[in-house]
Amino acid sequence: MAEEAVAVASRINAISKAITIEGQLSKERIEADATADRDYDKALAVRGLAYRDLGMPVTLIPSQAKGDACDEKYKMLVAKGMLKAHWERLKYLEAQMNAQQSIYRHLTHT
Length: 110
Known about the structure:
The chain is mainly alpha-helical. The protein is built from three helices and no strands.
């Protein structure tokens, strides 16, 4: 029984470290997402104005600007996916932590 409790405590410690690491990544992931959004919006605006200055028909400008900003859109979508995966990993780790803590309580109080 004591060996099992020690093993569970070790798993709790490992999960705690993983949560700490993910927590430190939060700021980085949020900034990457915000930067990618900003870069995409800026690229659309700059390209749209450039096409307007060239005399392109107004109805074609949004489509052409979106096509030209496809790299920025790709980076934006990747950043959003990374941030979503990050939050999901945190939720997963928290669920694991709760389960291990319940097991530990059961082992130490029975």
